[in-house]
Specification:
The protein is of the alpha+beta class and 445 residues long. The protein has two domains: 2-53 and 312-443, no CATH class; 69-298, no CATH class. It contains 17 helices and ten strands. It has helices spanning 2-18, 20-60, 70-82, 86-89, 100-109, 144-148, 160-164, 174-180, 211-216, 230-236, 245-252, 279-293, 306-348, 350-358, 363-400, 408-435, 438-443; strands spanning 62-67, 113-128, 131-140, 152-155, 169-172, 190-193, 196-204, 225-229, 268-273, 300-303. It has a six-stranded mixed beta barrel with strand order 2-3-8-5-7-6. The longest helix is centred in the last third of the chain and has 43 residues, at 306-348.
Length: 445
């Protein structure tokens, strides 16, 4: 058996060497097919990774907790009262609102969490010399910049002591630096935020977010924000969990029905998980935890980025389908080229095949010889195509500044498919030649 196989492979090799140009032209389809598959898979894999990384920054690994406005709370309580007994309906439930303690409790109890970031937002003004600008003042903790992937382009991040001691320091956004410090270095300068003077310790790198994305994704322009330690915010600006005489006067005023009173200590909690595998179940646990802490008052909402998660899965499916289609089309074209050349080869060598069958060659010998030729062509083309595909992927990355990722799976699949294409498309011509009657083959002109 091995001797027969070796003999047929030898004949196939001699036939290919005698028709070098035809063999090269035949293998071009496989070469470019395999090379294009590897290159497109590398480009697609790189693009997919880049898109998914950006989607993660938007919050695919996050759960966001926000307080509800008073109208929504009243609506939910009315619905609850409608579904309960009259005795229960007359009872008014108290909730402390969303607090810093809620964030710390979530961080202690929930597993698989990397960061828990509370946030307080206050609209105010920033002043430096005679320049003014309306800003958002954001009270944050040490994990805020890590969750949002923000980088400090100038200066430093907050030190832990500045968080603990409520120091009057701030980090400004890039637009604040541009508008208020067009010709100066803002680091260590004092800026008036609201009615407090703060020292600038850092500048956040510019975040490139288009206006369409800001509106579509309901994001704010982070370049216009000023960041301070959350302890500084609570001590020097706003701690809504503390009830002051002004709050009592406002509650007892005639306008209390029209004015919404916000008693939430913080405006947002972002919980960042290691992965999104059990993010929906985690949201349910957080809901029960906050329900107990808020005495079953539904004055908060838990936002799970289901749309982003669905989009992530959809992106993966689309890339896989598109790249599979490209792979199929490219290699099928190469396979058709092999089949056409093999059919032409059978016609050219009709008498040769007839003589071989007349002197004792069996049907399997003819079949094996022609399949060996197709396999050798596709194997050689596959190897050259892999080298060309990997090289072109790195060349595209260098010249076009496009992220490409060549995976061993794509190389292995391309190699296996190239061999399979040679065998599949070589079977029909080989079988046709092996089934011919040797007398008819010898009579062929």
């Amino acid at each position: 058996m091995l001797a027969t196989l070796s003999y047929n492979l030898k004949i196939a090799s001699e036939s290919i060497l005698q028709n070098k140009l035809r063999a090269i032209l035949t293998s071009l389809g496989i070469i470019f097919g395999v090379a294009s598959v590897i290159s497109m898979l590398a480009i697609g894999k790189g693009a997919e990774q880049e898109i998914l990384e950006k989607m993660k920054l938007l919050g695919t690994n996050n759960i966001i907790v926000k307080p509800l406005d008073q109208k929504k709370i009243n609506q939910l309580q009315d619905e609850e009262n409608d579904n309960s007994d009259k005795k229960e309906a007359t009872k008014k439930k108290f909730s402390p609102g969303l607090t810093l303690a809620d964030a710390y409790s979530i961080g202690k109890i929930m597993p698989n969490i990397l960061y828990v970031s509370p946030e307080i937002n206050v609209e105010t003004t920033a002043q430096y010399k005679d320049l003014y600008r309306n800003i958002k003042l954001i009270g944050i903790d040490s994990s805020y910049f890590k969750i949002n992937n923000f980088h400090i382009s100038n200066g430093t991040d907050f030190a832990f002591t500045q968080f603990d001691k409520s120091m009057p320091v701030c980090i400004i956004g890039n637009n604040i630096r541009t508008k208020l410090f067009p010709t100066e270095n803002p680091i260590n300068k004092n800026i008036k935020i609201g009615d407090q003077w703060l020292k600038i310790v850092g500048v956040v790198s510019e975040n490139f977010i288009s206006q369409s994305n800001i509106q579509l994704l309901n994001l704010r322009d982070f370049n216009n924000d000023v960041y301070i330690p959350i302890s500084t915010m609570l001590l020097r600006y706003a701690n809504r969990s503390l009830i002051t005489k002004a709050d009592l006067d406002r509650r007892n005023s005639r306008d209390k029905q029209t004015e919404e009173i916000n008693n939430n200590q913080i405006d947002k909690i972002t919980i960042h998980f290691k992965d999104n595998k059990q993010i929906t179940q985690s949201a349910e646990v957080i809901n029960r935890l906050l329900g107990r802490r808020h005495f079953e008052v539904k004055d908060y909402e838990i936002i799970v980025p289901e749309t982003l998660l669905a989009q992530e899965q959809s992106t993966k499916r689309i890339f896989n389908l598109v790249l599979s289609a490209i792979a199929s089309i490219s290699l099928i074209v190469g396979g058709i080229g092999i089949m056409n050349i093999m059919l032409a080869s059978v016609l050219e060598r009709t008498k040769e095949i007839g003589i071989r069958k007349a002197i004792g060659a069996k049907r399997n010998d003819i079949l094996l010889q022609l399949l060996s030729e197709a396999l050798a062509i596709s194997l050689t083309g596959g190897i050259i195509g892999i080298i060309l595909g990997v090289s072109s992927s790195y060349l595209i990355e260098q010249l076009a500044d496009i992220n490409t990722i060549v995976s061993w799976e794509s190389v292995l699949i391309s190699f296996i498919v190239s061999i399979s294409v040679g065998l599949i498309f070589g079977i029909a011509p080989a079988r046709k030649a092996s089934l011919e009657d040797p007398i008819n083959l010898l009579r062929y002109e």
